[in-house]
Amino acid sequence: MSKKQERSISEFNNELKLKGFNIFQIEKDSYATKAYSRKDFYKICLTTGKSRIHYSDKSYNHEGTVLFFGNPHIPYSWETLSTEYVGYTCLFSEEFLSLSKRSESLQQSPLFKVDGTPVLKISEDQRLFLNTIFEKMMQEQKTDYTYKDDLIRNYINLIIHEALKLEPSQNYYQHQNALSRLANVFLELLERQFPIEGIDKPLALRTAKDYAKNLSVHVNYLNRAVKEVTGHSTTSHINNRIIHEAKALLLHTDWNISDVAYSLGFDYPTYFNNFFKKATGTNPGTYRTSHISTNKAS
């Protein structure tokens, strides 16, 4: 990738984080469709072409027009198989859409759930109608209209409602059984919480209950799946990953212990100190000092 493209991607990401949304047209070989953080942004994509979409444990093979809903907490990837590929992409943060009172129930719809139906086959008439909505959003985001955010939220909700009326795609195959699928999605979701990028963005999912709620399953079912597939408890996986991140933050940032604790989801530094000492046998301050001194000596 050229330096110009890297600058464009950086500018794109900065603008997206600032506004909470971005709508753009997909062009052939467009790198912009991949230039966003899946930790932060939902995605609605209307595309025409030949593609293969991997979503959780499912793979969808399509040729024609599809409407895709990407949840940042569920692993997915997209393979473009045709030489001509066109359409629109809308990216938005949960915070942006949550300003709408109706958004919470919509995000719990089958379109965004782990066992949901994120890919919809679109007819020509439906494509033309949806094209119009995306075009209106693209035009609106360029204006200085005072209430354009509200208007764009309404357009997003309209697309979601239109999708809920459509029949889900059955053109997919599953790779694993239900417990294995859930365990793998949990592990992917766990990894997507890291690395911690800043003190102002602390770890959002801290407990097994947090992950179960996010994945729309009962915590007992999640615990059973993870334990059966991996041999370790959900809490053990979470705590081990937090310890790993805590060590990295202590050694590679200049954040004080309180900042590290808060960024990892602890309300009080003492809770973090006790958690860290139980796992490692030493407290965070001693760990930082001893390892930094060792590195300097070597």
TrEMBL record:
Alphabetical list of PROSITE patterns matching this protein: HTH_ARAC_FAMILY_2
Pfam family, one: HTH_18
Domain of life: Bacteria
SMART domains: HTH_ARAC (SM00342)
Keywords assigned: DNA-binding, Transcription, Transcription regulation
Keyword Mitochondrion set for record: no
Protein name: AraC family transcriptional regulator
Native source species: Mesonia mobilis
